[in-house]
Amino acid sequence: MTNKSKPLRIVGIFAHPDDEGFGSGGTLAMLASHGHSITIVCATNGDVGEISDPCLATPETLGSVRKSELRCAMKVTGIHDIRFLDYRDSGMEGTQDNRHPNALINSEPAMVINQISTILSSINPDVILTHDPTGGYGHPDHKTISSYTREAYLEILRRESSTECALYFVCFPKSDFQRIWETLYELGIKPPFASENLNDLGTPDEAVTTVIDVRSYVDTKIASLNCHKTQIDPNGPFEQLPKTMLRDIMSIEHYQLAYQSCYKTDHDILRNLT
Predict the structure, then answer these.
(1) What's the total number of domains in the chain?
(2) How many angstroms separate the CA atoms of 197 and 217, rounded?
(3) How far apart are CA 220 and CA 241, in angstroms?
(4) By residue range, what is the domain housing residue 219?
(5) Is 187 among the domain residues?
(6) pLDDT at res. 191
(7) C or N terminus of the chain, fewer CB within 10 Å?
(8) Does 208 fall in a domain?
(9) How far apart are CA 11 and CA 20, in angstroms?
């Protein structure tokens, strides 16, 4: 057991199935292997995501298929408590899906925040993980869940001032996006989104407070991500990156310690767990 004491309670709150894996999958696998209690909360069912192979899903079945994929991924990771808020995926910014009345971004904020705070109050976590405010690559649902999780966290602190809990944002540093985009262009491959707004992608490197080496867990991370079959295009741009480069990037995970309560100001609980 890391931290040489009792198991901790950790809650990851993410927008879509597979969001848990890219930025924090190795950390989650490590924490699960050390016996910590982990709950994953997924706000949407990802029902307007990609369908890599029509044999896997249809637009009508994609939501339920992606929920099954998340359960598969978490079984690989060693996590068994998965909770869905069941909102509709809002789609990428500027798409028609943004206007759907059931989309997460069109839901009543107070209702979503209350759902999150109710889960957090029932678990009383030591650590919360969620998207950073940029949403990584600006996805509206990522930014929304980051904001609502922060509000739910602060609401709990207002009600229960003695709560000991740290809130971390999962980060994708700008330098990593820069490196990936430059490599794709060198290979003659157009990046998948926002290629014209590279400077807007990712977390400023200086905002990262916590860097976790998950090299020992990267195989589990990759196996978990491979459960999200509908989202994996074997001919997609990321699949064309050199495997050693992709593995190297996936072996290091980044976080911003956004808030902590009742801990010493210099106490980075997540880093100390590794």
Answers:
(1) 1
(2) 32
(3) 20
(4) 2-173+202-272
(5) no
(6) 84
(7) N
(8) yes
(9) 11
| Nearest one of 233, 173, 178 to 206, comparing CA atoms | 173
Q: pTM above 0.85?
A: yes
At 265 the pLDDT is: 53
Backbone angles phi, psi at 184, to 5 degrees: -60, -45
Q: Find out whether 56 and 109 touch, Cβ atoms under 8 Å.
A: no
